[in-house]
Design a protein that fits this description.
single chain; about 500 residues; 11 helices; 17 strands; alpha/beta; rod-shaped
Length: about 500
Amino acid sequence: MSNILTVSELTKSVKALLEAEFPFVWVRGQVSNLARPASGHVYFTLTDGDAALSVVWFKSSQRSAEPVRLGADKVNPLTGEIEEDEGGTALTGSGLEDGMEVLCAGRLNVYEPRGQYQLVAELVQAQGVGDLAMAFEALKKKLAAKGYFDEDRKLELPRDPRRVAVVTSRTGAAIRDFLRIADTRGTGAEIRIYPVLVQGDRAPAQIAAALDMVDGEGWAEVAVLIRGGGSLEDLWAFNTEEVADAIYRARLPVLTGVGHEPDVSIADFVADKRAATPTHAAQELWPTRETLAQQVDVLDLGLNRAYAAWLAGKEGEFEHLRKALVWLSPQRRLERMEDRFSALMSRLQGAGLDHYFERAEQGARAAGGLSRAFGTHRLDRLSHDAAGLAHRLNRAFGPGRVDGLAGAVDGLGRRLDKSGRGGAEGAAQRLAVLETALRGLDPEGPLKRGYALVRVAGTGEFLRDPRRVTAGDALDITVRDGRVAATVTDTRPNEE
């Protein structure tokens, strides 16, 4: 059959007809699905809401295509025509953005490997903002005025949540990426998926209803709204006021991860936290397990240091209290009182001994003086002197005179001897009296005879006047064989 064509033959026929029919065209539309690969070429879709046209803008054609001015006129470099200034601005590849309304000039072409026709752009000129972009900006301005974007109303995300509700498509790549990252981070969580449409006219109502359900159940700690990348049209469900209202009235934190890094939706502005991608949303919720292990190590070291410091402080406090208790204990008080009593007794005994020895020395000096005045040595010397005197008298006055004088001398000697012995005995008696008086001054002497020393326990002074104490005062009584503690119950001073 001669009319049967191969795919290549048909595609080549279509290509020839199309390129011959439209060698150069101008097309107006809104940019979407913009892509800039590393080659430098720019690929995008031109749409007017009812149809879409693929456009390729090769790097070699991305030069400034501003009309050349010849005097006051502008000459189009592609057509050579003189143009009026309508406010359009020629673009380069870097200046093109999704949502822009542009005017493209170029030729139609059929890309044979895919059998797809496309516009090979030679010039792209900005014509203003597209309808979707204008609607986006209008809603953004409206919600900002109502306070939907205020930072002070936004909630903090829980750290390492255990219960997470995810509102997204059940079968999209977004949920797979989210679950894959969640499985490798944090300490484990229960994740419930609330499946909804994320594109199309019914998507906003389903997303809002799912968010209201999550908030009403009160089960989840955080709600996550995620979707993969796409054009402005594809993501438009997240730029609706219906979804924005649901996020705003939610009582639990809402995290969004819609599209890719450059994509920013109205939902992102209203949400408590915005993640760049669904994968980034999981990273925002759960820390890496290496980070958790490091935090555990840091907390463990801090706890050990804090415990050591606390223990050292308690040991110091205990030692201080122990010393204070020892100092204030009754046993320590008794020891201090015994030490003070021993010191006072030593002082008293020292004073008594000093007094005793002073009196003994005075008695010894008196006895020595009496002995020198009337002792036997004195009498022997007087007798010797008398014998010498008698001998001299005998030579001077003769035997008779001498005998008479000798008799007198004998009488005087006897009298002197008697007087001397009497004086010595009297001195000895006085010495005995002094010794008795000295023994009476010994402070411990009266104790042996049944007397006692009474001190006031509070002051340590000897009690001589009953008016120096009152009922209830403590007394310390020293007797011969020890001490007695007593308490005053009554005082009776002697009457005048």
